[in-house]
Specification:
Blueprint (H helix, E strand, L loop, with lengths): L3 H4 L4 H22 L5 H22 L23 H16 L3 H23 L5 H7 L2 H11 L2
Helix pairs in contact: 2-3, 3-4, 4-5
Length: about 150
């Protein structure tokens, strides 16, 4: 793992996106393991929703397709913003469901958001040449070349 991908190769909006996504992922795992309806579940749930909102909003401004500055695929944007509307609809639907006492729908929506917005988006992010791929699997020569191209 090479943190230069995160610190030198990723602009602030991508760093914020990564941090929020990691917080949401970790909280999601914890929340799914907790007893439901407790104060802790609710408090962590609101923190999770906030982290998901930050993740979704910052996904909109993620521009480069690859850490090396490759050609962006969608009018200069990453494909990750495609997950923003389903994330907001899923979280919003889950909040409405629980306010109306529909625990089954709340659970289904939150599991859907977790699996869709986090796991599928991570799968997209692991494509060769993208920052997450380079963070986990990039070699020092490849990362150094990308940092040099970026001017870091």
């Amino acid at each position: 793992m090479n943190w230069d991908v995160f610190t030198k190769l990723s602009p602030l909006e991508i760093q914020a996106h990564w941090v929020a996504a990691l917080v949401a992922f970790a909280l999601g795992l914890v929340i799914f393991s907790l007893k439901k309806g407790t104060r802790l579940h609710k408090a962590l749930g609101w923190t999770y929703v906030t982290a998901m909102a930050v993740t979704a909003v910052t996904a909109v401004v993620v521009r480069q397709s690859g850490a090396g500055g490759g050609k962006p695929p969608l009018f200069g944007f990453s494909p990750l913003p495609l997950f923003v509307p389903p994330t907001f609809f899923g979280v919003g639907g889950a909040l409405i469901a629980i306010r109306n006492g529909n625990v089954k729908r709340h659970r289904a929506r939150m599991i859907g958001v977790f699996l869709g917005a986090l796991l599928i988006a991570v799968g997209v992010s692991l494509a060769p040449g993208r920052r997450v791929y380079m963070l986990l699997f990039g070699g020092p020569v490849e990362i150094s070349a990308a940092v040099a191209r970026r001017g870091g």
